[in-house]
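Reviewer 2 asked us to include a model.

Predict the structure of this chain.
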Amino acid sequence: MRALVFPTAVFLLFSLFTAASVSGNLSFNFYAASCPTAEFIVRNTVRSFSSDDPSIPGKLLRLVFHDCFVEGCDASLMLQGNNTEQSDPANRSVGGFSVIDSAKRVLEVFCPGTVSCADIIALAARDAVEAVGGPVVEIPTGRRDGMVSLASNVRPNIVDTSFTMDEMVKLFSSKGLSLDDLVILSGAHTIGSAHCSSFRDRFQQDSKGRLRLAGNDLDTDYANELMKECGSSSNPSVTVNNDPETSTVFDNQYYRNLLAHKGLFQSDSVLLRDNQTRKLVDDLANDQELFFENWSQSFLKLTTVGVKTEEEGEIRRSCEATNA
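Predicted model (structure tokens):
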């Protein structure tokens, strides 16, 4: 199953149609009159934080996934408090919140009560990709912020790194995302890092506490390097790069890594076991432009999952709490 690629003019029309049909009242240049500098402020905030901390782009990209897959793209992940999404263990390693909060504070000065935290998250993830060499993606805005954030909603709605293909397909399908979208959006792992605990299922520990590779779908040298970096310690602060080759650049190296059996997570490696996904992995590994064009389409779909518009939500004064 090969992802569809359109000429630029046709793709623009496709994007407009998709945004209108999938995301209700979202629109391009939504803030043109009410806050014309909104996207500029978010982009500058992302670039400023990223120049100080190279890990920020990967964190922002992970943040949008974890927000949009639970309650839709409504900034529910930003809400703080007991039993909110942030309190679930699966979200404790999610970062980038300070970037969103910083952009929000500036926007509240120039355009109070106008730009939603949900839009800031989507725009910041888009700008993070661009900041590290990825494609420029136009996305519609007009999302409103949700008022519900429950830890109990997290686990049933996010991908676990040990997921099988069937489990991932089922989850992505429930969000309106296709098999192609699954493969393309997995390319987000071309940047960012992961805690050793998130892929320990790929190794076994012997009686002397030494790690051994479990299974045969990881390159031996790569597996040895991971074991060396992680050791037998369960120290939760130890991390490794998702992409062992070009970890700070958004490119198609992720797919070349997969073909070399250097996919960090079990959920990465399973993409090679299905004939349909394997074909798309091959195509994307051999053509970065194809990856960028398809990323733009799939990212647009991701950031319009379950959006709230008009009276469905609110524009928070602070991303950390509802206005009530």
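Residues 8-22 form the longest helix (15 residues). Residues 112 and 317 are 8 Å apart (CA to CA). We have added this to the supplementary material.
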